[in-house]
């Protein structure tokens, strides 16, 4: 009846790989979600399979009618598990499992999705229809990650590389534990854990960021090694690999200022979104589960052990040991499951991890910094959340610690989730960040962004429009003077928007960054900068023809694509634009420099923004603090 087109969409920025159904006759290149409408009447035959389609050699969908009901099922064709989201728009039909269903589809098996039941309304003849949208991710949404496993850094033992982006607690779980390692282009990438290769993509350009290897582990999680050289895969789908085995060659710089390897271990939440996991990496000192931006990390063989301070693991099951939870650091891990140790949670740092699951240790959460992590799950430790800074993290989940949230700044982060700390949100400014989610802390409310003053940003202003185009076309926040100049042009110029946008799109920066790219690569780059994903195949073909025929310019295409954003694409673009505005205003308010490497750092920061976070609460000081004053 129709000719569906399969679209695969991968984004290393948002960690998404989707399969969608597209109705060819309704294709519009700026859309982000497509449907396959089906219309039937009651004259279909009982037991008839009225619709069946297969996609990408991964799964088939079948709709089978039985009198006045339809059973919707999926059949796996893949050699790996899938999680599939199935969304229905129904007319005169009900779905027994609701109109949005997430289904785990084991390899080579069949899964029931839902039954559609016709609403006849007492009539003997009624028209009914459904639109079905599919999105899928590799992996099983029901798995649990083995938190005890010690990973190897994904490069050869003995080598040391910088962490360009480490764990970022302010980000949602979809991107919180992504790590970018500063591997030079062509460096050997090794398996961080044993597993089975389930997907290899290495046919894209080395600077596209779209080449990847996916590996399934024995606990069902999926490791993603992203940004490989073109043709750089050293393994094939179906291969069984061992930790430390060479699997690929790392790629070039993309949105970042230097080459990198993107690594994360994930599992699907549903067919549309992933969650990342905090990993424990083997180090020369034992184990590290807190990988921070700017760290230099050295790869070691986890089987070689390594030294620790009070035991590698959790410092004792129960209370972490009666006394001080271990002499040294209370144990590498969580300082003990329970209360982190009766006493001081360990002489040293209260345990590398969370200072103990419970109250962070009875006493002061550890003599030192209250534990590297969150100072204890609970109240950050009974006392002051740790002598020092209340714990590196959030000063404790709760109120940042009973007392002042820690002597210092209430914890590096947000001063505690709650009221920024009972007392003053931390002695200082309520925590470096936003002063805590809640009241911002009594005192100075926290070091915020110095720009937006908590006001909601109006998307209908010219300055918003200009900033959106900076994000779309250049992938970065605009400079303060530039944004205001272009906004004034939009407000006062007799030129039309198209004339202005074409002037905006011609610059030395454009030539330097994009001048060597072909049309396909330019369009792909626009989609990455706006939405963190590749263009749909049909959309890519459409815009390539439009630009190469001379009917539109690249800048005009960027404007139209941005205007056509829907659903998750729209959320991502809006969030990136709002955060970009806050950064631009913050740079101006704090008199920061914004040139060369500053711009590159801002690009990296913006490309980490997804559609799930709160753009007004997102901590931009982690970027602004790295910029020098003019």
From TrEMBL:
<dbReference type="InterPro" id="IPR038255">
    <property type="entry name" value="PBS_linker_sf"/>
</dbReference>
<feature type="domain" description="DUF4214">
    <location>
        <begin position="503"/>
        <end position="565"/>
    </location>
</feature>
<feature type="compositionally biased region" description="Gly residues">
    <location>
        <begin position="307"/>
        <end position="453"/>
    </location>
</feature>
<dbReference type="InterPro" id="IPR025282">
    <property type="entry name" value="DUF4214"/>
</dbReference>
<dbReference type="Pfam" id="PF13946">
    <property type="entry name" value="DUF4214"/>
</dbReference>
<feature type="region of interest" description="Disordered">
    <location>
        <begin position="285"/>
        <end position="460"/>
    </location>
</feature>
<dbReference type="InterPro" id="IPR011055">
    <property type="entry name" value="Dup_hybrid_motif"/>
</dbReference>
<protein>
    <recommendedName>
        <fullName>Peptidase M23 domain-containing protein</fullName>
    </recommendedName>
</protein>
<dbReference type="Pfam" id="PF01551">
    <property type="entry name" value="Peptidase_M23"/>
</dbReference>
<dbReference type="InterPro" id="IPR016047">
    <property type="entry name" value="M23ase_b-sheet_dom"/>
</dbReference>
<feature type="domain" description="M23ase beta-sheet core">
    <location>
        <begin position="181"/>
        <end position="265"/>
    </location>
</feature>
């Amino acid at each position: 009846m129709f000719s569906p087109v399969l679209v695969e969409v991968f984004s290393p920025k948002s960690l998404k790989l989707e399969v969608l159904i597209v109705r060819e006759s309704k294709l519009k290149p700026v859309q982000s979600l497509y449907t396959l409408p089906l219309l039937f009447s009651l004259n279909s035959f009982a037991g008839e399979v009225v619709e069946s389609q297969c996609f990408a050699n991964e799964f088939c969908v079948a709709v089978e009618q039985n009198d006045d009901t339809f059973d919707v099922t999926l059949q796996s064709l893949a050699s790996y598990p899938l999680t599939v989201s199935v969304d229905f728009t129904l007319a005169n039909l009900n779905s027994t499992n609701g109109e949005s269903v997430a289904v785990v589809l084991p390899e080579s098996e069949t899964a029931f999705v839902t039954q559609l039941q016709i609403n006849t309304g007492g009539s003997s003849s009624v028209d009914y229809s459904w639109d079905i949208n599919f999105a899928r991710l590799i992996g099983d949404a029901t798995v649990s990650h083995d938190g005890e496993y010690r990973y190897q850094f994904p490069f050869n033992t003995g080598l040391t590389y910088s962490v360009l982006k480490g764990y970022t607690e302010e980000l949602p779980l979809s991107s919180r534990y992504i790590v970018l390692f500063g591997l030079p282009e062509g460096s050997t990438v090794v398996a961080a854990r044993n597993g089975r290769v389930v997907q290899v993509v290495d046919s894209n350009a080395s600077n596209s960021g779209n080449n990847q290897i996916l590996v399934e582990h024995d606990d069902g999680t999926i490791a993603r090694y992203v940004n490989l050289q073109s043709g750089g895969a050293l393994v094939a789908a179906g291969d069984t690999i061992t930790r430390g085995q060479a699997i690929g060659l790392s790629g070039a710089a993309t949105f970042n200022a230097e080459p990198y390897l993107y690594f994360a271990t994930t599992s699907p939440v549903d067919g549309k979104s992933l969650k990342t996991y905090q990993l424990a990496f083997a180090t020369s000192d034992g184990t590290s589960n807190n990988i921070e931006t700017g760290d230099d990390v050295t790869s070691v063989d986890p089987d070689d052990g390594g030294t620790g301070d009070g035991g590698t693991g959790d410092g004792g099951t129960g209370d972490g040991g009666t006394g001080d939870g271990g002499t040294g650091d209370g144990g590498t891990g969580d300082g003990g499951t329970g209360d982190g140790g009766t006493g001081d949670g360990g002489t040293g740092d209260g345990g590398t991890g969370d200072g103990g699951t419970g109250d962070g240790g009875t006493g002061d959460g550890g003599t030192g910094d209250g534990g590297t992590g969150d100072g204890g799950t609970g109240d950050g430790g009974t006392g002051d959340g740790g002598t020092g800074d209340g714990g590196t993290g959030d000063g404790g989940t709760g109120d940042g610690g009973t007392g002042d949230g820690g002597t210092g700044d209430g914890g590096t982060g947000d001063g505690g989730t709650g009221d920024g700390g009972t007392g003053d949100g931390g002695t200082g400014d309520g925590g470096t960040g936003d002063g805590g989610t809640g009241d911002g802390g009594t005192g100075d409310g926290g070091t915020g962004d110095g720009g937006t003053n908590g006001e909601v940003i109006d998307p209908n202003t010219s300055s918003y429009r200009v900033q959106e185009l900076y994000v779309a076309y250049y992938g970065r926040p605009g400079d303060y003077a530039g944004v205001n100049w272009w906004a004034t042009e939009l407000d006062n110029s007799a030129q039309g928007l198209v004339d202005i946008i074409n002037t905006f799109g011609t610059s030395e920066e454009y030539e330097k960054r994009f001048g060597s790219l072909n049309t396909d690569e330019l369009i792909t780059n626009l989609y990455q900068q706006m939405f963190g994903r590749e263009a749909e195949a049909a959309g890519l073909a459409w815009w390539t023809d439009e630009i190469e025929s001379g009917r539109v310019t690249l800048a005009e295409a960027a404007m139209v694509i941005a205007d056509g954003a829907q659903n998750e694409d729209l959320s991502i673009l809006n969030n990136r634009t709002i955060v970009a505005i806050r950064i631009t205003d913050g740079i101006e308010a704090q008199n920061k420099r914004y040139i060369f490497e500053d711009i590159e750092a801002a690009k990296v920061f913006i490309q980490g923004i997804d559609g799930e976070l709160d753009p007004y609460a997102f901590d931009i000081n982690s970027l602004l603090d790295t910029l020098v004053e003019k």
